[in-house]
Specification:
Elements (H helix, E strand, L loop, with lengths): L2 E5 L25 H10 L4 E5 L5 H12 L4 E7 L7 H9 L4 E7 L12 H12 L4 E4 L5 H10 L5 E3 L15 H9 L4 E5 L17 H11 L4 E3 L12 H11 L6 H15 L3
Parallel strand pairs: 1-2, 2-3, 3-4, 4-5, 5-6, 6-7, 7-8
Helix pairs in contact: 5-6, 6-7
Length: about 280
């Protein structure tokens, strides 16, 4: 099974997406399965993992309902506020849906990422770790130190780092991202998505070679069994076409990689991680 392990759908009229405004015309329209289907077919992808793009329970309900009549959606990553006293109730409701595969922790949106090592987060994430619930971690490179600390407190967390933790690709900065990603990868239950990279480069003038040092490092520290391809479509359209996103990843893969390793990157790892 070949999968895109990270993409989004939205309907603007729903009103969940305050970050998508008319000033971003590329994104300010509906993006639904019929718009992505030709691209999936072109790249011989059998399905996708749809990830929340709004911090509302209602958007997760929308995505789960969308998945019911859409075979290409093999899993939905929900939104949960783990500091909400009722988070377990919301989780249990979502978990009854056959295509619910986990939730996303939006560290990126936190004013102070060090909050994730405080008791409310540690207690909630320990609960999810014990249940082996897949957790997506949306984090920016300057927030990685608290995440390293969190995994020392919750070493069993079954999680995947979205967008290779958004390093400063535009500026060509590797450290301390490089060292911190190696620390995170030392936890065998932590995976990484090769996704969301083009939007961290210069949107108009990026070159494929700029991504190679970052991709090579991720592949080195996580290995072929804990990495996933994700397009981050349609957000990726801010900087690249779907074809270009695939090409960026393909060009950076080691020539020594086997067909089996490519199968893991382009689907099998996501299938196993999300238990599809």
């Amino acid at each position: 099974m070949r999968l895109d392990a990270h993409q989004h759908y939205w309907s603007i009229e729903r009103g969940d997406y305050g970050w998508i405004t008319p000033e971003i015309p590329v994104l300010y329209r509906d993006f639904l399965p019929q718009h992505l289907e030709p691209l999936l077919d072109k790249h011989q992808l059998d399905g996708t993992i749809v990830v929340q793009a709004a911090a509302t329970l209602a958007e997760t309900d929308f995505l789960l309902a969308l998945s019911e009549n859409e075979p290409s959606i093999v899993g939905v990553v929900a939104w949960l506020d783990v500091t909400d006293p009722h988070y377990r109730k919301h989780y249990e409701r979502f978990a009854q849906h056959p295509k619910f595969v986990g939730f996303r922790l939006m560290i990126q949106e936190m004013a102070d990422a060090s909050e994730i090592v405080l008791p409310p987060y540690v207690e909630a994430l320990t609960f999810f770790a014990e249940k082996m619930v897949p957790v997506d971690l949306l984090v920016v490179s300057h927030q990685l130190e608290p995440l390293v600390q969190l995994l020392e407190l919750v070493p069993g967390l079954h999680a995947v780092i979205d967008h290779i933790a958004k390093p400063r690709i535009k500026d060509g900065v590797l450290e301390p991202w490089k060292t911190q990603m190696a620390q995170l990868a030392a936890h065998s239950n932590i995976y990484c998505k090769l996704s969301g990279m083009v939007t961290e480069a210069d949107h108009e003038h990026w070159k494929p070679a700029e991504f190679r040092p970052y991709i090579e490092h991720v592949l080195e520290v996580f290995g072929s069994e804990r990495v996933m391809y994700g397009s981050d479509w349609p957000v990726s359209l801010l900087a690249a076409s779907y074809d270009e996103v695939v090409e960026v990843v393909e060009q950076a893969l080691p020539q020594s990689w086997t067909a089996a390793e490519r199968e893991r990157l382009f689907g099998l790892n996501a299938k196993e991680f999300y238990r599809i």
